Amino acid sequence: MRWLGLISGTSLDAVDAVVVDLTIEGETLEARVVGGRSTPYPPELRSRLIAALPPGPCTAHELTQLDTLVGQHFASVAASVAEEAGGVDAVSSHGQTTYHWVEGGHALGTMQIGQPAWIAERLGVPVVSDLRARDVAAHGHGAPLVPLLDVLALAGAGATDDVVAALNLGGISNMTRVEPAAGGEPSITAYDIGPANGLVDAVVTGRGLTPVGYDAGGEIAAAGTVDDALLATLLADPYYDLPAPKSTGKEYFHLGHVLAALGGRAMDDADLVATLTRLTGEVVGRELLRTRVARVLASGGGCDNSVLMRAIADAAPGVRIDTTEDLGIPTDLKEAFAFALMGWATWHGLPGNVPAATGASGPRILGSITPGAGPLRLPEPLPALPRALVVVR
Q1: Binding residues for ATP, per the UniProt record (predicted)?
Q2: In terms of C-beta distances under 8 Å and separation of at least 24 residues, what long-range contacts does 360-364 make, across chains too?
Q3: 0.70 exceeded by the pTM?
């Protein structure tokens, strides 16, 4: 089947879309990337989303409008990318997270907007959506869900005696860690580490430092000097010491988080961005060392920030840092790829969560399906998930 995966992450910078051909060959799922790209939100819509997300207030009236507008934008992106690819059989849409409700270390609810009916109506094909809620209902965090792809892709990359990890650097940094076990199944852990680009984006947007709303290539950070006192305050946040599984988002790591750490102290824009970039580097690097990771395959928008990548490398000496490009998965479209895979799994009656990653009570088939132009016809469920995923180039 040819699947179109869609997602806008916590950075709110764009809708990522990728078209993937997925074919089962024995116990291996073969994937071929047909096309894809990132399409920015219209500036007005992005501004409304930022204003509605925590810690800002949001009315039912505004949320309803945003659900429609985001759904229409996703539909427009999907139609364009699908046409360029020569059509798709189905769509898997993550939508836009507006709130991830966590209390006492437990996820109690999650909301992603972007009404899938607009996509189904525009393309005429089925749409799988609302992929996080079932895991939360099964006492999981609903995040991270990307480990389904991480585990299969790392298996497809070949056996190794080292601890390897897939690291995503979006608004939030998350990691899937795979530790081999002699003669048995590998040990898998996955969780949200902390902020990646999210705090930098909040400052850049809040202070109007760039028209795109993020520090492109790390140019602002490169011009600043790290403030050691602020860095120490930020590193003392208790989230980093919580045990896995754990999840977080912009309802916790937002502009107010930075302002509270500053405590009313004025700081140069570039110095603040440099400090927040170093924060991500330190938090991620320390976690790689603490969990004895030998090799990392990174993805996400943070891979384009040379200052951030250097900060991670400096904080994790001896760790080999590569990107998912080595596996044939575009770094900026990896999450969209993962949600295309999750949609494929749902379609074939297979679980899309990794309980060891989310803390759910067991594997669950994720999401809801919106029919396309015709009746919904699902195939016979497959007996089990493939053991590995290989990208055919």
Answers
A1: 9-16
A2: 360/135, 360/138, 360/139, 360/140, 360/141, 361/138, 361/139, 361/140, 362/138, 364/134, 364/135, 364/138
A3: yes
Same domain, yes or no: 99 and 163: no
In tens, the pLDDT along 341-354 reads 999 999 999 999 99
For position 136, what pLDDT does the model report? Answer: 97
pLDDT for 245? 87
**Amino acid identity, residue 181?**
A
CATH number where 232 lies: 3.30.420.40
Instruction: Determine the structural domain holding residue 139 and report its residue range.
Output: 2-146+331-391
> Would you list which residues are annotated within the binding site?
9-16
- Is pLDDT larger for residue 154 or for residue 224? 224
Q: What are phi and psi of 54, to 5 degrees?
A: -55, 140
Selection from 177, 182, 199 nearest residue 319 by Cα: 177
- 41, 214 contact by CB (below 8 A): no
DSSP for residue 256: H
Beta pairing partners, 193 = none
Higher pLDDT, 315 or 53: 315
The answer to whether residue 236 is domain-embedded is yes
Per-residue confidence at 183, pLDDT binned at 50, 70, 90? low
Q: Which helix (H) or strand (E) holds 234?
A: helix 228-235
Binding residues for ATP: 9-16
